């Protein structure tokens, strides 16, 4: 199969451009693969070698890129990067050709090698190859050009390419997380909008903490975030443009607007508005600013999330007497309850694959994160705690992030609040390292759509 | 009076939670109802007057927004106070404990604030003098993760503007 692939990826979030070429034809699918629909007991051992570079600067980029790739793959829980101290073949001779015996002897099933060059116009050229060590075959080879300061994005794109080649699913490493950074005592908590790469790097605060901010969510266009702010003491939904730094209120509404989410096409925002103590779900078309009301019930109706095809909406309502999950058409017709196990259900979020809905369940004094099919069948709880809340999907629909808050003691101490990632199988729960306490994570789509 | 008993229990809860000796504030709120004489600094119609002499907050059961008999008694005193101080406008804040999810609690806090506001209006306080805001679970008064703290945090608070 010959790939005549020559694509230019617009980098919306960072206003940079990548050039990617597949410079070697992709081999037929090798035997090396991981089925990620099941929990993986034994991660695949692989060797990620420092990318080869001639000069000192190139060598340093090569080592940094390799360490980001190894960390990405390790965090996925599907791979076990082998300690480089065990490597037999050196990077210079590997740059000529792998000696597969040297890699088999240290039990590497896959081998990642690459090369970094500074071009005459000051760009970085990064190429990599993934080898199936047992079959002695190249599985994929790609090259990218970028400005040197964007080396982390290239490393994540390479991680995604490796993940995709071996699992058959698209990756999620070239993504960002927007979340709420928290500091100070619970009674006077300071909350700031913050953004970082999915591995916690390139962290930035987006607001100063003057106003209480909550529940940020990414637009599929990546340039915008919708969130709730108590700007001037009035809780309303805002849209924040990452490129321009502008905050803009979503419409002029008489009551509190909250629980916003972009539609999957990014053209509208679905949210709740409350009037005289009654909350209903609305959707606003961002181009025309026209607003449609979807629910009409005296109960609480909130936390709407659209299916990826835009045809249905899952939401949270206490119309049955306690908070439960309902699915309705995107016109608001036929609201149907889908949650029926014991306890209360909240924060439903439709998977980008469409196959599952993630939720928070509260039962018997404990909080759980779980997934169920859109008809409510096949419910599985994947983690629990004193307080776990707010699942958000990786763009491949295989991994969730959520936040976990510990209980406080009688003096209000403790209460550690952090973001975690977990496979939907319930395996591989990991803390995402943040500079301070963290809640309300929202996962971006793939940035360069690799 | 029923209100005073509720107020004393509430203060006892705060003191126990903090584990410190009663401060002058807790001493004054647990004091006799005729506290105006012992608190010469409190101006009639002020925020302190409402908090100390009337009671600025009412409490709710878990995941509920219906007013209890105690809550109605407090709000009746608030309504009389507002009618006596006709230049005062208020914001009613609705709050929740931490045992719910964030967005649902914003809606629940909004219901609680509106339940208190609606009752004041039935007692002839003009709607133009009352606004409401929900803070959900964002602004607890007691940061502990205990039943006693959560009971304190499930509240509406009438704040003088």
Detail the topology: elements first, then pairings.
The complex is a heterodimer of chains A (450) and B (161).
Chain A: E1 6-11, E2 16-21, E3 44-48, H1 56-75, E4 79-81, H2 91-94, H3 100-104, E5 110-118, E6 124-132, E7 137-146, H4 151-167, E8 176-183, E9 190-197, E10 204-205, E11 213-218, E12 224-229, E13 236-241, E14 247-249, E15 256-262, E16 268-275, E17 278-285, E18 291-293, E19 301-306, E20 312-317, E21 324-329, E22 336-337, E23 344-350, E24 357-363, E25 366-372, E26 380-385, E27 387-393, E28 399-405, E29 417-423, E30 430-432, E31 437-443
Parallel strand pairs in A: 3-4, 3-5
Antiparallel strand pairs in A: 1-2, 2-7, 5-6, 6-7, 8-9, 8-31, 9-10, 11-12, 12-13, 13-14, 15-16, 16-17, 17-18, 19-20, 20-21, 21-22, 23-24, 24-25, 25-26, 27-28, 28-29, 29-30
Helix pairs in contact in A: 1-4
Chain B: H1 2-18, H2 24-29, H3 35-38, H4 47-54, E1 57-59, H5 69-84, E2 90-95, H6 102-122, E3 130-136, H7 147-153, E4 155-160
Parallel strand pairs in B: 2-3
Antiparallel strand pairs in B: 1-4, 2-4
Helix pairs in contact in B: 5-6
